[in-house]
């Protein structure tokens, strides 16, 4: 039994075995990292994300002002030494609100991504492994959800449930798992025919252990890429809904609802800093996640690893 399990573990990652058989000193992980670092845009995105996430986490210590403190005497004050990025229509410091708003926007993006990837991975794994009626039922469910216009369904559900942070995350997660499910299903349809899966069945391993302990780790490459890209998408969706007044509600600041009160043409002309800086943060964050996702997609490409 011990020998069979050892052979099974050795057969789980054939790409790594091929690299080792060629006598290369670098591990599979080091090859992936090296390939990722060759992508300059991906490295730029990773550095930007480190700065953005780090700043958000350290917001209580970095922010020079209370993000919710109002002082109408400083209403729409231009950027200065006291207010680095100016103030909003209530005299609140925009730089401080960007830092604290980033915590909420990033939290929404990451938690919604975890929920969507968890649901999508589970559904795709079960459909791909069992096939037959299970696959047909789950994939028709995916088709039904995809058939609805996403943005209109989002707006409708958020409006019906009343806007709040937890409901926003829940709606994002339950409407955005279908792409991951299809990716994972495709990987499972291929991997379940591999030798290490047959060996696992031979030694009497249960279906759940085979699915989540043997096949899933080998199918995580596309899932990681999809998850990275999804975070940026969720941040953009939260910003759009908050801009429309259907997302996170004031006084909690997010990058999206910071733009809500800057819709006035007068404010846009006389206080350019008010809409500009939240918009720039949304742009940089979404672009950075997309750059990192593209870099991971290239680095985890089996055709690239095998070269």
UniProtKB/TrEMBL annotation:
Single biological process term from Gene Ontology: transmembrane transport
Alphabetical keyword list: Cell membrane, Membrane, Transmembrane, Transmembrane helix, Transport
Pfam family, one: BPD_transp_1
Subcellular location: Cell membrane
KW Chloroplast (keyword) present: no
Signal peptide: none
Residue ranges of every copy of the ABC transmembrane type-1 domain listed in the record: 102-293
Superkingdom of this protein's organism: Bacteria
Membrane topology of the entry: Multi-pass membrane protein
Gene Ontology CC annotations of this record: plasma membrane
Transmembrane segments: 41-63, 106-129, 141-161, 167-184, 215-237, 272-293
Family designation: Belongs to the binding-protein-dependent transport system permease family.
UniProt-recorded name of the protein: Peptide ABC transporter permease
Organism: Anaerobacillus arseniciselenatis
């Amino acid at each position: 039994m011990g020998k069979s399990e050892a052979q099974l573990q050795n057969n789980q990652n054939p790409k790594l075995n091929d690299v080792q058989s060629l006598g290369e000193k670098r591990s599979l992980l080091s090859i992936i990292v090296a390939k990722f670092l060759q992508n300059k845009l991906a490295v730029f995105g990773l550095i930007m994300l480190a700065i953005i996430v780090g700043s958000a986490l350290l917001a209580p210590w970095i922010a020079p002002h209370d993000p919710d403190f109002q002082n109408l005497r400083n209403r729409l004050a231009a950027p200065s030494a006291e207010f680095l990025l100016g103030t909003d229509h209530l005299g609140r410091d925009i730089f401080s609100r960007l830092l604290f708003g980033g915590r909420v926007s990033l939290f929404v993006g990451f938690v919604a991504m975890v929920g969507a990837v968890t649901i999508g991975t589970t559904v795709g794994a079960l459909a791909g492994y069992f096939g037959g009626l299970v696959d047909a039922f789950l994939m028709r469910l995916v088709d039904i959800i995809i058939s609805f216009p996403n943005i209109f369904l989002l707006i409708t559900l958020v409006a019906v449930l009343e806007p709040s942070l937890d409901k926003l995350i829940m709606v994002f997660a339950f409407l955005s798992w279908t792409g991951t499910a299809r990716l994972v299903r495709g990987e499972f349809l291929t991997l379940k025919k591999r030798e290490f899966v047959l060996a696992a069945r031979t030694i009497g391993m249960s279906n759940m252990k085979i699915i989540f302990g043997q096949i899933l780790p080998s199918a995580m490459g596309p899932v990681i890429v999809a998850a990275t890209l999804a975070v940026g998408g969720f941040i953009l969706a939260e910003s759009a809904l908050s801009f429309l007044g259907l997302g996170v509600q004031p006084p909690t600041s997010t990058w999206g609802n910071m733009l809500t009160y800057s819709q006035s043409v007068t404010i846009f002309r006389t206080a350019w800093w008010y809409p500009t800086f939240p918009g720039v943060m949304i742009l940089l964050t979404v672009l950075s996640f997309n750059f990192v996702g593209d870099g991971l997609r290239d680095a985890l490409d089996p055709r690239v690893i095998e070269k």
